[in-house]
Design goal:
With about 210 residues, the chain is mainly α. The chain has helices at about 1-30, 40-55, 60-75, 80-100, 105-120, 125-145, 150-160, 170-185, 200-214. It is built from 9 helices and no strands. Helix 8 runs antiparallel to helix 9 (about 200-214). The chain starts with a helix and ends with a helix.
Length: about 210
């Protein structure tokens, strides 16, 4: 009896391990495709891939998070404002599911802030007050949850970079924020290979742009 139970448990653990390995491989395979995306449709196809993983792995938050992330990237890649809002509606939906599965997570709050930033950029003159406040609130929460996460300050730095100087923004104001983010990126070690690690290359590019403009 004991031997039978031991065999059953061993097979169960082996099945779980195989499933987890397949899940991680699928996430990594799709993460590698992000840099290959050029058009909104490329990002939407990738978002659909992550959604399919999420449907198969209903208790995992990362596929929903990455689906939200790629919809945000689709909004940045598209030039039609009416479509941008549609993408961001979907990003919110998937990020909320991720939040329900993994509450109080710094990366998820960072994504909330990123979505608000993307909303604001569609119509800055009319949306800055609502979505600018939402972005700041969520980035602040993300930094409170994890002081070592470099992504909230990266996105705050980007927002500051594009804010007019008369409102306290501009490249000079953004530089120390981006430098702080880069310092965190230099020390940042993801928990595993499929955890978020995006942003460092962009921080380096912004700082290079700022330094070369002086």
């Amino acid at each position: 009896m004991r031997r039978s139970l031991s065999v059953i448990l061993s097979l169960l653990f082996l099945t779980v391990a195989i499933a987890d390995d397949k899940y991680e491989k699928e996430i990594k395979k799709n993460l590698q495709k992000i840099d290959e995306c050029k058009t909104p449709n490329d990002f939407i196809k990738l978002a659909n891939n992550f959604e399919r993983i999420a449907v198969a792995e209903k208790d995992k938050w990362l596929p929903y998070y990455y689906s939200a992330f790629t919809y945000v990237l689709a909004s940045f890649a598209d030039s039609v404002n009416s479509r941008k809002d549609i993408y961001l509606d979907k990003a919110i939906k998937f990020n909320e599911i991720a939040d329900s599965l993994q509450p109080n997570n710094s990366e998820i709050y960072t994504m909330k802030g990123m979505i608000s930033q993307a909303r604001m950029q569609i119509d800055p003159m009319n949306r800055w007050q609502k979505y600018g406040t939402d972005a700041t609130t969520n980035f602040t929460k993300a930094m409170q949850i994890d002081t070592l996460n470099p992504r909230p300050e990266y996105l705050i730095g980007v927002g500051t970079f594009y804010t007019p100087q008369q409102f306290g923004g501009g490249p000079t104001a953004a530089k120390p924020i981006l430098e702080k983010s880069l310092a965190k990126f230099e020390k940042f070690i993801p928990e595993n290979e499929i955890m978020p690690k995006w942003g460092k290359e962009q921080v380096v590019d912004y700082l290079k742009q700022i330094n070369e403009s002086k």
